[in-house]
Amino acid sequence: MNSPKRLHPVAAILRFLRSLRELALPLVIFIFVGGGRERLFDTLYVVGIIVIVLGMLIFGILTWLRFTYRVEKDELRIESGVFVRKKRYIPIEKIQSIDVSSGVIQRMFGLVKVQVETAGGGDEAEAVLSAVTKVEAEELKVVLSKRTYTDEQDEKIEEIDEVVLSPKDILIMASTSGGVGVVLSALFAFLTQVDEFIPYDYVYGVARNVVGSSVVIIVVGVVFVTLLAWIVAIVSASVKFGNYKLVKRGENLYISRGLLEKREMTIPIKRIQAVRVQENIVRQLFGFASIYIEVAGGAIDKKEETSTFLLPIVSKKEVPKLLERFTPDFIVDSEVNSLPKRAQKRYIFRTIIPSIVVILIISLLLNPWGYISVILLPIAYLVGVSMYREAGWVVKENRLLLRYRFLNRHTVFARRNRIQAFHFIHSFFQRKSLLASIVVSTQSKLTGKHFKVMDVDEVDAIELYHWYSYEKKQPS
To answer: Where do transmembrane segments lie in this chain (predicted)?
Structure first.
């Protein structure tokens, strides 16, 4: 692959569609708000729109023509740029992962998209090849992974372990994902962008009539909107995580998922920095959890921020067995050490004070109905007690387990040699109670990932500090 190669011509179409999507909202405003309906049919007005669209198409073609890639001297070399020529050389030894995905358009032409990730590469992939053939993608993976076809053949005789999530598993995951809030937030964000088209006078008139008619109608309306958002969240999660498959072969994990857009990711096990088991309130009630891995180089999906799903939904009872199968180096099977009793009041204090502020604000703004918000006080108390009871830690040889929660419960498994930093936090009030907080940081993207357990016994916190640092002096 020493000679420069271009992407498939479909890459020009993909670039054009991306530009069109980015300018979709400005174009809609340009068409409908530009000056009234009579201008819509004005010749110059229509010609202007056509020129903009054609310009984006031509720019997409030029971008494709000016983009080349090759592998030379142990580097992936990419040259791009329509007006300013850009050259990017990526050493093979710095490549952390190679992700392969195929959207609807790529599938129509039998193509895939290849993304190359490096450690500390930020939010964006270091290199993106938007349209290459499957054969070219496999050849590229072989070359960038420093493997030969003989190695590929040898891998076939290695032991393979895999987990495939059934449609029932995906439905459970989608139903308990808490995506309702995300859908409602997205709807609110959309409305703020198109507020010029919303007839607020009519909406307010309808709202006044509804409020004055019946509380039942209001309740039914809220339930309907929530149910609709829940259904949308289920469909979205099912499309995103459908056909989810996890395979362990040799020293790599292979993750694939997606109905409309198929995504694949190869994760070297040695790049895993920590394993995290997360349980939201609903899943904890029904005995389910999600397993994440913190990988040097980032997540399979940028929307997942810095964490990658190992398995998006599993039975809590199966978690130890699954970790033993896929990430045995991180297993800690000892009993978790609880926090001292004197730490409980601090956890309760952290939840009670914000709730009092919220109650006062609601009571002042919605008098007299706002006084109902006083129910937040016992809820805040129970949340504080739950946070205290769930928090804990344990060390076994060179492995560390941390557990903490707010709304979601997190159980983190880490190895000492994969921890980037260990912070010992000792505030004035903590010193008075002989307590301290510990923060463990691992490499994952540019900013890393941080896990914190507050109000550990001061003696235990110092021991943990010594366990990580090998120092024999008390931290300042």
So the answer is: 12-33, 45-67, 170-191, 211-239, 347-366, 372-395
49 in Cβ contact with 60 (< 8 Å): no
Helices (H) and strands (E) in the chain, counts: 17, 20
Note the pLDDT tens digit of each residue in 29-65: 666 655 555 555 567 777 777 888 899 999 999 999 9
Give the predicted TM-score (pTM) of the model: 0.75
Domain borders along the chain are: 5-145, 342-387
Q: Candidates 2.60.40, 2.30.29, 2.60.120, 1.10.3470; correct CATH number of 5-145? A: 2.30.29
Contact partners, residue 204, CB within 8 Å, separation at least 6: none
pLDDT digits (tens, 9 = 90+) for 257-314: 988 888 888 888 888 999 999 999 889 999 999 999 998 765 555 555 568 899 999 9
Q: Which helix H or strand E contains 204, and what residues bound it?
A: helix 200-213
Listed residue (410, 428, 424) closest to 456, CA to CA: 424
Q: Can you read off the two tokens belonging to residue 432?
A: 């008075």
